[in-house]
TrEMBL record, chains A, B:
Keywords, in A-Z order: DNA-binding, Transcription, Transcription regulation
Species annotation: Halomonas stenophila
Domain of life from the UniProt record: Bacteria
Listed GO MF terms: DNA-binding transcription factor activity; transcription cis-regulatory region binding
Name used for this protein in its record: LacI family kdg operon repressor
Cross-referenced SMART domains: HTH_LACI
Pfam families recorded: LacI, Peripla_BP_3
PROSITE patterns, per database record: HTH_LACI_2 (PS50932)
Residues in HTH lacI-type domain copies: 8-63
Amino acid sequence: MSEHAQRATILEVARDAGVSKTSVSRYFGGERERLSRDMQRRIAASARRLGYRPNQMARGLKGGRSRLIGMLVADIRNPFSIAVMHGVEQACREQGLSLMVCNTDNEPALEREHLALLAGYRVEGLVINVAGRPSRELEALAAQGTPLVLLDRSLGDFEADVVGLDNARAIDSALDHLQAQGYGELLYVSEPTAEASSRQARLARFREQLAARDLSGEACCLALDGNAPALERAVAAFLDAPATRPRALLCANGNVTLAVTRALQSLGVPLGETGLMGIDELDWCALVAPGITTLAQPTEDIGRTAVDSLLQRRAERERPAPPRRIHYQAELIARGSTRR
Amino acid sequence: MSEHAQRATILEVARDAGVSKTSVSRYFGGERERLSRDMQRRIAASARRLGYRPNQMARGLKGGRSRLIGMLVADIRNPFSIAVMHGVEQACREQGLSLMVCNTDNEPALEREHLALLAGYRVEGLVINVAGRPSRELEALAAQGTPLVLLDRSLGDFEADVVGLDNARAIDSALDHLQAQGYGELLYVSEPTAEASSRQARLARFREQLAARDLSGEACCLALDGNAPALERAVAAFLDAPATRPRALLCANGNVTLAVTRALQSLGVPLGETGLMGIDELDWCALVAPGITTLAQPTEDIGRTAVDSLLQRRAERERPAPPRRIHYQAELIARGSTRR
DNA sequence: GCCTGGAATGGGAACGTTACCATCGTAGGC
DNA sequence: GCCTACGATGGTAACGTTCCCATTCCAGGC
């Protein structure tokens, strides 16, 4: 291993060990036990001495197995995405797979671009968490047989496995809790639902249950990026309207919880008297004022399950099993913000 | 593009367009302008119709250019890491590079494993943010000529470019601020410094300045993972000790700020009267009680600069330029936690 | 008219692996 | 003692690119 030595190749190792490159290939390709004790020792010694690492590019080319999993994240700064990604990463590592993470910043153009790149690397599976309709690229990948799993949101009528939260029951348990705590006038705050099925599911369930239960309230969808004033106005309007029962706000996800908490603080509204509750558990929910009640998603599990699902698809390859939908239950973490 | 069609190859496109594969290669390899108008049209049409994407594996193999950048992150759940990663990712995209992110969860074994994998993919550059001494793997990578850049922490006497915070001046401005606000008795809280140069630099500067200024105080280093009680005891001891001037806590990074805030809350200590300040700006610092004063790092810039540095190294290839060290200034965000 | 040169294109040999198909012993069944 | 079969090993042809070196064509200088 001199100064600017190129990486050693399988051929050099083979020569150095006095064996054929096939044997070296077998050694590193997981067929070690097929080799004699002696040969194993010699290969190990040579490889170690030369600092040999199998070239994954060559491997991927020849065998068609890139050992790569791609992940498309709509917003990498969302803690939920990070937590899921952590699960995905662990599962991949356990399987000897590497992960390529691409952040689309919610831009469809970036999404297509990244998808094209991942396709170029011939990823063996794709974990996807993006907005919008399925792009040409995605359809090509699917048609080509790349295992896909959608995180949190399904994609139009696109047929693929989905792993996420049981949104209906999550909303139900939120409402159960709020009702039990005596809140009767609700405002549900969400980001725009147009492009994300999970947001739609939550919103729909909220509306549905509002009618079914002894509750009144409304929902409000708005984009959060930078227009805090709009949100503040909406919250203020809700708080100023006449009401016969205690009021509470329900936030559709962590981003909303952050924005709403800011708005409430800016309006000087004390939490608890006015209820506040959010989907997604965040680091700081325990720290703000009386603590913010949340519904925690089992993020790591979701990530791991996504990878499992991918591998299963790959295993049953040509079999056209119907799309699986795996829904996890949220866990209620009650804190002061829903205690009057 | 039939149901389970394999991806088209360059040869198929060439045949379909009635040209040679060299021409197709040129078209996709960024030598488009060398081709006649007519040929460009024909290739574009065929490629589009067949859904052709250059196989990056083959590219990487032949040309030795993987178009891949690797990033090693010690703790992916640290918001600082995420923010930097976002910058890295943007810079990579602008350069047409893809990013492979590996999380080491602060485990040296995982670090080696991931490094080996990245080496296998022949990454063209490596952004590294990990603890500990340089591993064999890392040294091999470096010796082989892979451009490296260290994030936030330097690695023993390992020679490589470093991008991070100007730790000395960051501590100075923290102390300036605390002093100006009238605090005179300080507790500096850090995670163990053994394996991270930036932690060492901050701690050393703190101790040094304590002596140089009219301040008294001490420093306390402890592991945060799960032993909240220990931290709580340390904080309580500081608060109980007799003092002639107002007390303040200075947190070495975002993790510490989170843990200390929890400890203070659990002890029922009001912020402001007891000062609190942290390095790293976090989503929720404005939300907790009177707001927590922070020193914000220019995370995106740090990430982008890291990639720039990598590219520059690659450009000046065989030239043995001395290691560069780029240090950014932190920005003070004053809030209620340091107002008496 | 011939030679030079550059622009447009094509052919073939790598790149480092793996998969398939030999080849070689040698132990065991008859 | 011979044939079979299996276990251990090796040789070689792909995989899909890029890069180097032709080749062709035509414009322009002498």
